Each structure stands twice: as C-alpha cells, then as structure tokens.
Amino acid sequence: MARRSEHTRPELHDLTLKTAGRIVAREGIAALTARRLATAIGYTVGSLYLIFRNLDDLILQLNAQTLDELHAQARAVAEKNPEPRGRLLALAGAYVRFADEHRNLWRLVFEHRQPARLPAWYPERVARIFALVEGALTELTPSRRPAEIRQAARALWGGVHGICVLAMTGRFDDSSEPAVNGMASLLVSNFLDGTVATTRRPAARRRTR
C-alpha cells in the first residue's frame, strides 16, 4: 500500500475524485464505497478522511465536477447557436446527450441525498447552467420580469430532465438517444410557442385599443 507521502494533499484529492468518477461511471453508484475507493488508490480509508469530511462530502465534490463538465459542454453548444430558440433546442439536445453518455455520474448528481446546508460553491454551479437557459428565454421574451424568466427556465428544464429520467430508467418503449432527443425537442418547441404567444398577446391587445 502506498505511503501518504507519495502524494501531496491536492494530488491525493484529485486522484481520489478521478478514481471515484471512474468507479461510478464503470460500475454504478452502489459500487462507490470508502473501502473500495481506498483500495483502488492504494491508501487507507483513514487517509480519505484527511481529505474529505466523509463519503457524502466526496460525492458532493464529485457531483460538482460533473456539473462543471455539463456546463462546459452546454456553454460550447450555446456559443455555436446565436439564435435563442435554436440555442434552447441545442441545449436540450446537449443535456440528453450528456445524460446518455455519462449516465451513472449524471444519476449520482440527482439521486444522492444532499446535505441540509450546501456549500455556496455547489448552488453556484447549478445556477450557471440555468443561466444559459434564462439568457435565451430573456432574448425571446424581453418583456418578462426576471422572476418570471427564472420560473420559466426551471419549468422548461424540469420537463427536459423528466424526459431523461424516464428514458434512463427504461420507462419508454424507445429510449434511444434520437428518440429521447426528439421528445425533448418537441417539449421545448411547444413550450416556447406557448411562452412567446402569451407574452405577445397583451401587447397586441394594447395596440387595438
């Protein structure tokens, strides 16, 4: 077994998270235990708790890395789609693809029980992802208040996420990525049609008076 001095504290931190991510990705959420992880990196379980408060803390940091990767991919897609409607459709497709390609890590973000009080850096990561959706919705419906945009973004992405959950748990007859992406695109298109229509209707009424 390796001695603790073989890695600095930051190196051991990064090694542990990288190994934990590999275990979850290959073998599923249930395979990630402190003992299994310690054995995989060649350290004692006690060494892990010099770096992380407990296994929940480790998983929270692993989930933060997953959110960082999701945000990076979503931002890259957003930058390639300047038109807001097309951007939202592309973001939905990117989300479906990420959930499919990183299924176990994606599930871990939502299935692991979070602590009652999250560190500030965790909700900030979630907010960055929603900001991409909110930005596009603001461009489409500039007259809506920020609180309405925020609510609309969460309603829309809650629907896209729900489709992914049902697909990843085998609740659809066809859970292939093209089929799931088609459902997500249909949801986004219909949501945007309704949102834009209800935003324009009051303005049209004012013009007829």
Automatic annotation (TrEMBL):
Annotated region of DNA binding: 33-52
Swiss-Prot/TrEMBL keywords: DNA-binding, Transcription, Transcription regulation
InterPro entries membership: Homeodomain-like_sf, HTH-type_TetR-like_transc_reg, HTH_TetR, MT1864/Rv1816-like_C, Tet_transcr_reg_TetR-rel_C_sf
Domain HTH tetR-type: 10-70
PROSITE patterns linked to this entry: HTH_TETR_2
Pfam families xref list: TetR_C_33, TetR_N
Keyword Cell membrane listed: no
GO molecular function (one): transcription cis-regulatory region binding
PANTHER family in the record: HTH-TYPE TRANSCRIPTIONAL REGULATOR BETI (PTHR30055:SF234), HTH-TYPE TRANSCRIPTIONAL REGULATOR RUTR (PTHR30055)
Name listed for the protein in its UniProt record: HTH tetR-type domain-containing protein
Gene source species: Candidatus Muproteobacteria bacterium RBG_16_62_13
